[in-house]
Amino acid sequence: VNPLTPGNPAHALFDLFVAAQTCKEVQLKFAELCRHLEVDSQDYRNFYNKLKERLNYWKAKDLWQKIDSRANHSDYEQGKPCAKTKCLVLGAGPCGLRVAIELALLGAQVVLLEKRTSFSRNNVLHLWPYTIRDLRNLGAKKFYGKFCCGSLDHISIRQLQLILLKLALLLGVEVHTGVSFKGLVEPQASGAAGWKALLHPESHPAAAYQFDVFISAGGGRFVPDGFKRKELRGKLAIGITANFVNRHTAAEAQVPEISGVARIYNQKFFQELHTEKGIDLENIVYYKDDTHYFVMTAKKNSLLKKGVIKQDFSDADQLLAPANVNQEALLQYARDAAQFSTGGKLPDMEFALNHAGQQDVAMFDFTCMHRAENASLVRERRGKKLLIGLVGDCLVEPFWPLGTGIARGFLAAFDTAWMVRNWGKGMPHLQVLSERESVYQLLSQTTPENTSKNYNAYSIDPSTRYPNVNVSSIKPKQVGAETWEEKKKVYLSIYSLTRLSDLLSWCQKHTAWCNRVQVKDLSQSWKSGLALCALIHHFRPKLIDMSRLKEKDAKFNNQLAFDILQREFGIEPIMSASDMATSKEIDQLSMVLYLTQVHNAFTETPV
Ligand code: FAD
């Protein structure tokens, strides 16, 4: 029992839950609180109200007031729109947690999976004014008293995750940590069984959960099958982050923060830094939080000259490969830049430690950023539809020095919640997708200036945030229709004969190298699977060894090609490999559709 709140153990447990500073502690204190109050955290429909009823404590009431004022917004219709919706959210990063909270407010059952067991990122996120208002309105200050005091506009990733985790739990989100998502499991039979997830550990109870909405917020590297990513390649940009221990002394408190000194605004500063220290930067940011956090973009030549990068390569991956980086020189470079930019006023700059117990300095490549081409799609198997959405870094990777990650991440979380609301309300799924994609078009251009300034009016409805949003700029027929029947209908309406003959010529051109293959049409010529394998081999020789394939092994060849195209490009097979190998007549339209996706995966100009 907390000695600060003697008397009522429930109040003490609530205080400990609110004050918990690690992911594990939050979960433990939450479980203890639930046990003590005899509320079942899995009873997601009634959980929050029961908790409220049983915890008659003024501190808790302050928080309930905040949460209720959000929950009573008309968009949520008291949890009716998604009362029958079951969501699986992947990732307890800030965006996964934020979307989970919105889905719970819409009345959905929400299960969230996170592979890690701790929140360990010291790095600090810039917050746009609307995110500060959003988090304040949700009671962030009750969990973290220092939240955006005065003019502060940032928070460490770790603290943000802790705040959002606590809110998610209070709203009945079922959070499982230490569980990795490995893929989707299709419904096995018609009837009751729905979509499930393949997990590690396999026997985890959440593996039995069936859902009709899957939201991936798995960060920059996790994009589920079926989504294509665009690569946005800019000029070489090398980011460095560094965290120093904050002892919270008066001297440290006085050192002013630097919120984005870009080269163009302060040439003198950067010239002096270059002349005095040999450090050449494009920009630098310094925020004070749990740590003293610096993020900067460094020029390659100065990193080479200072011996941070050992050898010059034109390829950014090779350039920044761990073997090509001198860690000691990197520590020195980051310390010198931090010291110079704070006028040497930060006393004994000791590096904070990262999750691996090492000095927290890292170098990242921002030359090539990714964004998903679509924000949503629907898959259907055995009559069961699954709505899939992306949020956060796996939708659009942010450039950290500009601090767009959380701002755009939360916008996408709200837009995704709106999409799920439409889904829950029974809107036809092509319309759900086309509305989501119409709104997604706006995301990459959003700034604090061109989004609405009426932050208090922000809700999951896109029109409260994006002035002049047109939710039908993308038409239902343009979006990821998923069943072949639906796709065929869409294609029938947009495919022209010229395009068909272009597609055929393209296939012929790129399979001509293989004398065992003769592509004459867009149907029967593909039966043995050899043509498809030859096409893949032409673009990616390492993926298929043609010399081992035989024309008579049609099922094997087709399966091989289907598997590769699904794994590498997320292209779903059109039919089973054996159907393809044995069918008397391969459906031309299905084949056209399939080959179109193959074409688009291998070329820059989609047909
Ligand atoms: P994330 O915060 O990356 O969360 C994704 C979560 O999904 C992770 O917790 C991950 O463990 C989990 N996950 C992934 N795959 C699986 C799986 N298969 N199964 C279960 N769980 C899974 N932004 C800045 O603006 N400044 C910075 O200095 C900065 N530093 C960063 C440092 C690191 C090491 C990383 C990874 C990101 C950093 N970012 C930074 C980006 C910032 O953290 C994100 O923009 C922000 O957290 C929003 O991301 P998110 O919620 O979409 O994803």
Give the gist of this structure:
The chain is an alpha/beta fold and 607 residues long. The chain contains 21 helices and 17 strands.
How would you characterize the overall build of this protein?
By secondary structure, the chain is of the alpha/beta class. It has four domains: 1-72, no CATH class; 78-122 and 158-230 and 372-476, FAD/NAD(P)-binding domain (3-Layer(bba) Sandwich), CATH 3.50.50.60; 235-366, no CATH class; 484-602, Actin-binding Protein, T-fimbrin, domain 1 (Orthogonal Bundle), CATH 1.10.418. Helices cover 39% and strands 15% of the residues. A six-stranded mixed β-sheet has the order 5-2-1-8-17-16, with helices on one face. Strands 11-12-13-10-14 form a five-stranded antiparallel β-sheet. A two-stranded antiparallel ribbon has the order 3-4. Helix 1 (9-19) packs antiparallel against helix 2 (23-37), helix 14 runs antiparallel to helix 15 and helix 17 (497-511) crosses helix 21 (588-602). Flavin-adenine dinucleotide is lined by residues 90-96, 113-116, 121, 123, 125, 157, 180-181, 217-219, 222, 241, 295, 392-393, 398, 400, 403, 405-406, 409.
- Outline type: globular
Helix coverage percent: 25-40%
N→C terminal distance: 66 Å
Which structural class best describes the helix and strand composition? alpha/beta
What's the CATH H-level superfamily name of the largest domain? FAD/NAD(P)-binding domain
Write down how many β-strands occur, each being a DSSP E stretch of 2 or more residues: 17
